[in-house]
Write a structure and sequence with these properties.
There is one protein chain. With 183 residues, the protein is of the alpha/beta class. Helices cover 42% and strands 17% of the residues. The strands form 3 sheets. A 3-stranded parallel sheet has the order 3-4-5, sandwiched between helices. Strands 1-2 form a two-stranded antiparallel sheet. A two-stranded antiparallel ribbon has the order 6-7. The longest helix has 17 residues, at 131-147.
């Protein structure tokens, strides 16, 4: 139905110019490609459906890589703090390939939040998880939302409905609001 395409557009990944796109009262299409890259690098965190992690690297090396890509300083203490948020601090030296899908999802979220973005975009963040781990991820995202930033996610999960403040549905007619939080 176009959900991933929409997430790419929201996250400044799409190069399509036919859109009217405003971020903090700035028309995105009036910016140079380098300014758009800068916005994407510093303001948006991504968690893709396939995690986008480096399997042969350790958990710490993945965090370090994402920090370097965003030109953010990283040290062991900051990495441990972020890994504590997602509850995998004990896996710091573990190879990513040895993690469960739930642990990989937590690491992918840690890689997204380590740069302190204004927006985190997640595409089917719980599709590879059982219901227990799925609920844990949604609870984790609620905690991050309270402390840090806006979270936008696409999901087919009925469990997501319980945790979302606002739900939009993509259908043949466009985008419609299904649930809207009062606050």
């Amino acid at each position: 139905s176009g959900k991933t395409t929409l997430l790419y557009r929201i996250g400044l990944i799409s190069k399509e110019k036919k859109l009217r796109y405003v971020w903090d009262n700035i028309n995105i299409h009036s910016l140079s490609p380098s300014k758009i890259d800068e916005l994407r690098r510093y303001k948006v965190g991504y968690v893709f459906q396939d995690f986008c992690l480096f399997e042969e690297m350790s958990v710490y090396e993945n965090i370090e890589y994402y920090c370097r890509a965003a030109h953010q300083p990283i040290d062991l203490q900051k990495a441990v703090e972020v890994l504590k948020i997602v509850q995998i601090e004990d896996f710091l030296d573990c190879k990513t390939k040895n993690l469960s899908n739930g642990e990989k999802q937590r690491l992918a979220i840690a890689c997204a939040i380590v740069k302190d973005p204004e927006v985190i975009i997640l595409d089917e963040p719980t599709s590879a998880l059982d219901e227990i781990n799925e609920r844990e991820i949604f609870e984790l995202l609620q905690e991050i939302l309270k402390q840090q930033c806006t979270i936008i996610l696409a999901s087919h999960s009925y469990i997501a409905n319980e945790y979302a403040d606002t739900i939009y549905e993509l259908n043949g007619e466009g985008i419609c609001v299904v649930k809207q939080a009062k606050d």
